């Protein structure tokens, strides 16, 4: 019988292997795909709002947006409603990239999870949500993920 520590280590190993497979399904916009999809889905928004949606550190998000702006995918404009805010918008190239990113994300999700039955997907979803709930209650864990 496996002791509790060995069991936890085995789960960590399996979780890492799954994460590796997920990273192998990366698309053409690593690190930016989710940002493109969110901006496409919700339209113009402030950097603060995008930080809230992604749960990324502001500095990390700013670096990613700088790179996306340099690549011509997003533009930053002073908000017409509040000049203290900067609105983020997709450029025409960003709109095209967002469509491609959405398609690639959908294909990756299907490749990774399409093998599971509906019941297995429900069970996995429940387990992952439970982990996030438990980790969220642990303040130390929450702080580490926000760094």
SSE map:
Elements: H1 4-24, H2 33-42, E1 45-46, H3 47-54, H4 58-70, E2 74-78, E3 86-90, H5 92-113, H6 118-137, H7 139-146
Antiparallel strand pairs: 1-3, 2-3
Can you offer a commentary on this structure?
- The chain is elongated and about 60 Å long.
- The protein has seven helices and three strands; from the N terminus they run ααβααββααα.
- The longest helix is centred in the last third of the chain and has 22 residues, at 92-113.
- It has a three-stranded antiparallel beta sheet with strand order 1-3-2.
- Helix 2 crosses helix 5 (92-113).
- It folds into two domains: 27-115, Arc Repressor Mutant, subunit A; 116-147.
- By secondary structure, the chain is mainly alpha-helical.
Task: Please name the defining characteristics of this protein.
Arc Repressor Mutant, subunit A, mainly alpha, 147 residues, 2 domains, 7 helices, three-stranded antiparallel β-sheet, 69% helix
């Amino acid at each position: 019988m496996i002791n509790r520590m060995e069991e936890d280590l085995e789960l960590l190993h399996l979780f890492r292997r799954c994460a590796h497979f997920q990273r192998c399904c990366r698309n053409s916009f690593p690190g930016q795909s989710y940002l493109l999809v969110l901006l496409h889905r919700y339209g113009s928004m402030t950097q603060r709002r995008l930080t809230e949606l992604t749960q990324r550190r502001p500095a990390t998000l700013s670096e990613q947006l700088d790179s996306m702006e340099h690549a011509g995918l997003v533009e930053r404009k002073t908000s017409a409603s509040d000049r203290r805010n900067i609105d983020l918008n997709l450029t025409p190239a960003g709109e095209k990239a967002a469509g491609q990113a959405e398609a690639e994300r959908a294909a990756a999700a299907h490749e990774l999870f399409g093998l599971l039955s509906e019941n297995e997907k429900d069970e996995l979803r429940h387990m992952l949500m439970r982990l996030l709930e438990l980790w969220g209650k642990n303040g130390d864990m929450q702080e580490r993920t926000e760094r």
